[in-house]
Amino acid sequence: MGGWSDGGSSREFLDAIVVGDLCGGTVAEVTARGVSVVLDGFAARPLGFVGSLDLSWRRPAPVEAGDRITAAVIAVEPDQDQVRLSLAATENPGLWAFLTGLRRGETLSGRIAAIERFGVFVELDDGPAHPVFPGVGFITLPELSWRRFEDASDVVRTGQRVSCEFLQFDTTNGEARLSLRATQPDPFRAFAQSTAVGRTLQGRVTALVPFGVFVQVADGVEGLVHLRELGPAPVASPEEAVRVGDEITVVVTAVDPQRRTLSLSRRRARTAAG
């Protein structure tokens, strides 16, 4: 960043900064939240801020007041009179450059490096290794599959080759957030195109929740039977009407392809049958 000298307003100073710039400055204060930085070219007050999670991907960086630092701009917030910075970016320039060069929607290939309860790490074919995690790529549980599953290991296995869609750069962890399900056909889309309101279906109860039950009516497609739609008589909890694994008859009451939601009624199915 250049072309600025003291004497102008903070708004003018911030307007000259863009995401991806490297900014130098002096640490003004260190707190539990992060580090305030007086940026070069604007000495009036600290405009830079490095959040605690953006200090380092390896460990909390030992930064003290008075230290000189160089950090990458991850957000410019004129209304907050602030530039959000990442010190981790300049600590790992090769990884940062790789991740910032990715584009949403592009396909990345790699190998499942580790399966955790919160998601799956992917060791990408291209790009550098991560300084902390088993892989630079990461798939959250919802992005693993369109279908319901109990554990990530039900969908993938360690060492398996996968191709995923890039969603976004997680600057906090230095990860490429990926989607495996985006590369697979969405079963709900085909179901919604061929199913109309009023259709009667057979399904299996897959989960009980306080407000109703979820029923699988096709491979990878589940709908909700609200508590009031479980039967002709009101029930206080779903356990009074059904159990997980029960096969029941339901009627489609609403289909929303955009939200991928399906509303069902067991009460109406019974009424129609009677």
Can you offer a commentary on this structure?
- A hairpin with a 2-residue loop joins strand 6 and strand 7.
- The chain has 5 helices and 15 strands.
- It has a 5-stranded mixed β-barrel with strand order 1-2-3-5-4. A 5-stranded mixed β-barrel has the order 6-7-8-10-9. A 5-stranded mixed barrel has the order 11-12-13-15-14.
- The protein has helices at residues 10-15, 87-91, 93-100, 187-194, 266-273; strands spanning 22-30, 34-39, 48-51, 68-77, 82-86, 107-116, 119-124, 137-140, 161-170, 175-179, 200-209, 212-218, 221-226, 247-256, 261-265.
- The protein has 3 domains: 10-91, Nucleic acid-binding proteins (OB fold (Dihydrolipoamide Acetyltransferase, E2P), Beta Barrel); 94-183, OB fold (Dihydrolipoamide Acetyltransferase, E2P); 187-273, OB fold (Dihydrolipoamide Acetyltransferase, E2P) (Beta Barrel).
- The chain is mainly β.
- Helix content is 13%, strand content 39%.
Summarize the structure.
This protein is mainly beta.
What are the main properties of this structure?
274 residues; mainly beta; OB fold (Dihydrolipoamide Acetyltransferase, E2P); five-stranded mixed beta barrel; 5 helices; 13% helix
